[in-house]
Design a protein that fits this description.
Number of strands of chain A: 7
Structural class of chain A: mainly beta
Order of helices and strands of chain A: EEEEEHEEH
Subcellular location (chains A, B, C, D, E): Bacterial microcompartment
Protein name (chains A, B, C, D, E): Ethanolamine utilization protein EutN
CATH topology of chain A: OB fold (Dihydrolipoamide Acetyltransferase, E2P)
Helix content of chain A: 10-25%
Keywords (chains A, B, C, D, E): Bacterial microcompartment
CATH class of chain A: Mainly Beta
Largest interface: A-B, 36 and 37 residues
Number of domains of chain A: 1
Main location (chains A, B, C, D, E): other
Largest sheet of chain A: 5 strands, antiparallel
Oligomer: homopentamer
CATH architecture of chain A: Beta Barrel
CATH superfamily of chain A: EutN/Ccml
Organism (chains A, B, C, D, E): Caldithrix abyssi
Chain lengths: 99, 99, 99, 99, 99
């Protein structure tokens, strides 16, 4: 899984049928050293994550299992928010080593 | 999933049988800061996405489920357009932070 | 899927049993702007792609389904040629934008 | 699989139901030449890996099989610690070649 | 699949049960132009690949199918050696183009 920050949403009306009613967030992957990562990931969300929140995202089957556990294989998604982060504890030594 | 721009199409006559009649687009992955991403992805499309449109693409099972939900495992593809983007809402603070 | 150019072949006699009689090509992923991509991918091929040809390759289940649709899960491969490219149509505006 | 160093933990109360009671570590992927890798990976752990330890992590089904072998498909995770490293033997010639 | 050079081994006593008795190699992915790739991959091996040998590695289901074809889903691995390379034929034109 990866850590990301919610930076927005994306809307699509012309889409694969099984995606109807799903909300898609724009997630900016982050790292703890604030190195720039330019890509964004589009992730489905059922937890109600808001812009500015830090989230844990998962790919593949894990994402489909998060969004629709009754029938994950029926979904055409491969990324989803699986948790909204409350707190991170990071080893201070490591932060210094690499900065 | 990732965001991409449709930049063209690719044709193949000598191909795996299960790909007959599928349309393959050349997708240029994009990000919101317009940083250059040099790779292109080849994605199957059944939504009729045209050159210049922004699309959401998915990989793996999600792609096969988008193209042929009756029997996704029968397809030899692992990328597909799952939605054509109408609108994106992006946090303006984040746009400034990183630019 | 990705676009690649066939640049060679690789031979292995000591290999996993289910790979017997499979041909493995060395594929150099390409992009449309000719930016250098240094990695190569090893892909199984049943279409007879030759050195210098441009091909579409797929990963994972899609690759196994291409090579052995009767029993894809029995194969220890995760990349295959799924099509030999005849023609690509690329938006000229995009080519200029990014060059 | 990849090698990583445990650098911290992450907590989430608002999360997908099937993640209840799982511990999530922040893993910094490492390589043997100490080249900086800026991303971190979030991995589930049932082995009790502590901050500073070097671990082997796996992705996808392998991760779910590590955490919950009774029903791996029920989990919304795609990365897990599968081993805590005791010792590595690395070819000294290779270390010199590349340094 | 990718090409790699075996550069060492890694030992773990505290590990997921289904990994007992498996041998884990440290693989340095290589390319044909000798561009430096800093990451290493940890791959299971049943072929007896030794330090210095060039191997073909596969990810995901393909790796589990290589190591334990009787019940691949029971393994918590996602990378394995699937072949030891005897010979590679590479187009000399391509080698010159890119060097």
């Amino acid at each position: 899984m990866f850590l990301g920050k919610v930076v927005g949403s994306v809307w699509s009306t012309k889409k694969i049928d099984n995606l109807t009613n799903l909300k898609f967030l724009i997630i900016h992957p982050i790292n703890l050293k604030k190195a720039p990562l330019t890509d964004v990931v589009i992730a489905a969300d059922v937890l109600g994550a808001g812009v500015g929140e830090t989230v844990i995202c998962a790919y593949g089957h894990a994402a489909r299992q998060a969004i629709y556990p009754e029938n994950p294989a029926s979904l055409s998604i491969e990324a989803a928010v699986v948790g909204i982060v409350d707190r991170m504890d990071v080893d201070p030594e490591w932060m210094e080593d690499e900065s």
